[in-house]
Write a structure and sequence with these properties.
139 residues; 5 helices; DNA polymerase, domain 1; single chain; mainly alpha
Length: 139
C-alpha cells in the first residue's frame, strides 16, 4: 500500500514538472517568448531583472518584474518553474508584421484639400444647380 501511495505521489509530482516547461531562471528571451502573453518586451524585462536581482526563488517572485502582477503570474504558473531544464516544444508566438517606412523612391501621396466654408448665397446656388441637374420625375 505504501508503495502504491508513493507511486501516486511521484506520478502527480512528475505531471506538475511536465507542464512546467520554462525555467524562468535559465530561459533565454526567445524561450520566454513562447509563453502565452509574454512578448519580446516582457521577456527582456524578465532576463534583465534576473541579471540585476539574481535568480527567482519561486514563481511568485516574477511579480517583482514590471508588467507582471499576481494575476499574470497565476495565469502562467502551470508553464513556469524555477528549477530543472527548459523544454520548449512550441514555436514562439507569431510576431506582428513589421511595417516598413516609405522610401524616397515611392510616389508622394496627394492630400485632399480641406473643405472651405460656404456662404448662404453659395449654398443656395449649389442647391439650385443640383436641382436643375436632376432628371424630371416620371409620371
Amino acid at each position: 500500500m505504501k508503495a502504491l501511495s508513493l507511486l501516486l505521489v511521484m506520478l502527480f509530482a512528475s505531471i506538475q514538472f511536465a507542464f512546467a516547461a520554462v525555467n524562468i531562471n535559465t530561459a533565454t528571451q526567445a524561450e520566454l517568448e513562447t509563453l502565452k502573453g509574454v512578448g519580446p518586451a516582457k521577456a527582456k524585462m524578465i532576463v534583465d531583472d534576473r541579471a540585476k536581482n539574481g535568480p527567482f526563488k519561486s514563481v511568485d517572485d516574477l511579480d517583482r518584474v514590471k508588467g507582471f502582477g499576481m494575476k499574470s503570474v497565476d495565469k502562467l504558473r502551470s508553464e513556469l518553474s524555477v528549477s530543472g531544464a527548459t523544454t520548449v516544444t512550441a514555436a514562439p508566438a507569431t510576431k506582428k508584421a513589421v511595417v516598413k517606412p516609405a522610401t524616397a523612391t515611392s510616389a508622394p501621396v496627394a492630400m485632399p484639400e480641406p473643405a472651405k466654408k460656404m456662404s448662404k448665397k453659395e449654398m443656395k446656388a449649389q442647391e439650385a444647380a443640383a436641382k436643375a441637374a436632376m432628371p424630371a420625375p416620371v409620371k
